[in-house]
Amino acid sequence: MAGNAHASPPLHPESLRKFVDPLPIPAIATHTGKPHHYRIEMSELTVKAHRDLPPTRLWGFNSSSPGPVIEARSGESVAIEWMNRLPAKHLLPIDHNIHGAEGDKPEVRSIVHVHGAKVPPQSDGYPEDWYVPGKSVTYHYPNQQESATLWYHDHTMGINRLNIYAGLFGFYLIRDAHEDSLNLPKGRYEIPLAICDRSFRSDGSIDYPVSGMRGSPWVPEAFGEAMMVNGKLFPYLEVEPRKYRFRILNAANGRFFHLSLSNGQKFIQIGTEQGLLPAPDAVEDFVIAPGERIDVVIDFAGYANERVVLKSDAFELLQFRVAAKPVSIDTSAIAAVLRPMARIPESAAVKTRRIPLIELKSPNGDSMTMLIGGLHWSMPVTENPVIDTVEIWELLNTTEDSHPIHLHLVRFQILDRRPFDEPLFYRTRRIRFTGPALPPDPYEAGWKDTIRAHSKMITRIIVRFEGYIGRYVWHCHILEHEDNEMMRPYDVLGTAPESANA
Ligand SMILES: [Cu+2]
User: Fold this and answer.
1) CB of 113 within 8 A of CB of 58?
2) If you ran DSSP here, which 8-state letter would residue 14 be given?
């Protein structure tokens, strides 16, 4: 259903000529003159999403969506002044029934979170710490963590899905000496790819779906038919027949991408969200959920003069045009050992929490909300690990959807996923497993910060809570779920609570 009765008709992306626009490569952010200090401004901008489409109004950072790439070094802190220079009126339909977006709240608000960053709580971008146009905050990022592919995005209570859909996201890369020593492809041979889906109208404007219920536009999922890579529809990239490193981010609100290459060639995976894998791994195809990142090398040597398309099932996303020969000899390497990773033994866990993911439906079967632990955002904190302890969290998914669950502050490892008898659990709260525990997918073998909790399965992760004490959040990264209560605060405590909180 169209958001506006007077709007121009929907655009059918298949009607557009493919691969006529070069892939935009986000600029590296430049500091203010003071080293390690950045000023990043959120504002409205106009882009050409495709050669044959009229200009599109979006929101972005420093006049770009995705925003500029923040490049940080491990162990060197960075300060960023995040300035809200957005207009007073929102680009997309707000649902004032959603908690945190009530009618007494200003329409346009923002707060930026760096996804995957280990930061003190006061710089994490707590969803309720939003501010209005004309204001800014300065956040401090210690970067006391290994090289990794992070990203920044809006996290405002109740309108996060709309702010990100409008374009408020970008890459934040942490590098370190160990990664440098590996001699991976770099410079013009290292390219970030932010993938998302959108709906457009033929006048070039973006369209966000609405429920059709007057006054309650929220929808449980927003999918578009137009696939954007770095802000373009069907772009192409000229490459040399040699190795390239791609940092792939799923920046979509709700779409899972199933990526592969049209020539059947394999990706060489070198990392997950939180850094390098122990060893490279050839992978023919993989699923990447909203919020997840995957770090891969594609070697175009042997494909000179060919066209190779990055696709997600039937959707064509990006065409690589491989040149006849490389400009110079490819001296980059993919080491057999990237970064050793010790498995956290289950015996190290001081506590196991089993947390159900639940969907509430209206009498006519429509999804009303999804909840973590059956609790709303405003209810008291229930997850309160003690700093420097290890816990196992069991995500018991009773819903029909796979939910990408993200914990702020920490990195974790996946133990396994195991199917259970959901109707029995619904009636009696008892667990009866219906199959064996399944190991993580091969491409999930590294440090993660976002994990797909599959339908009717218990997904187990093991986490060491380290870094800082204080209040953080964890949530589903399907943004329509997150905005409508599928997010909970959690506390990292300095010492164990007096009485057991079981
Ligand atoms: Cu979800």
Assistant:
1) no
2) G
Question: 7 and 206 in contact (C-beta within 8 Å)?
Answer: no
Could you tell me the distance, in angstroms and rounded to a whole number, from the CA of residue 356 to the centre of ligand 1? Answer: 12
28 CA → ligand 1 middle, Å? 32
Residue 302 CA to residue 322 CA, distance in Å, equals: 10
- What's the sign of the alpha-carbon dihedral 276, 278, 284, 290? negative
Q: What distance in angstroms lies between residue 373's CA and the mean position of ligand 1's atoms? A: 13
In whole angstroms, give the CA distance from residue 334 to residue 470: 39
d(CA 102, CA 178): 48
Query: Which pLDDT belongs to residue 4?
Result: 54
CA of 148 to the centre of ligand 1 (A): 24
Q: What's the CA-to-centroid distance between 385 and ligand 1, angstroms?
A: 23
Burial code (b: 16+ CB inside 10 Å, e: under 16) for 423-448 equals eebeeeeeeeeeeeeeebeebbbbbb
147, 239 contact by CB (below 8 A): no
CA 122 / ligand 1 centre spacing (Å): 26
pLDDT-above-70 percentage for the chain: 98
SS3 content of the chain, % helix, strand, coil (to 5): 10, 40, 50
Say whether 110 sits in a helix, a strand or coil: strand
Measured between alpha carbons, how far is 406 from 474 in angstroms, rounded to an integer?
6
CA–centroid distance, 498 to ligand 1, in Å, is: 33
pTM: 0.96
Using the mean position of ligand 1's atoms as its centre, give its distance from the Cα of residue 203 in Å.
32
CB atoms within 10 A of CB 6: 5
- Report the candidate in 172, 170, 190 with the shortest Cα–Cα distance to residue 180: 190
Give me the residues near ligand 1 (ion), CB cutoff below 5 Å: 403, 476, 478, 481
Backbone φ and ψ of 495, nearest 5°: -140, 160
Write out pLDDT tens, residues 312-336: 999 999 999 999 999 999 999 999 9
pLDDT, position 6: 62
> What own/partner pairs with CB < 8 Å and gap ≥ 24 does 331-334 have?
331/183, 332/183, 332/184, 332/185, 332/186, 332/189, 332/242, 332/243, 333/182, 333/183, 333/184, 334/184, 334/243, 334/268, 334/270, 334/280, 334/297
Q: In this structure, are residues 191 and 25 in contact, taking their beta carbons and an 8 Å threshold?
A: yes
Mean pLDDT value across residues 205-221: 93
Q: What tens digit of pLDDT does each residue of 82-138 get?
A: 999 999 999 999 999 999 999 999 999 999 999 999 999 999 999 999 999 999 999
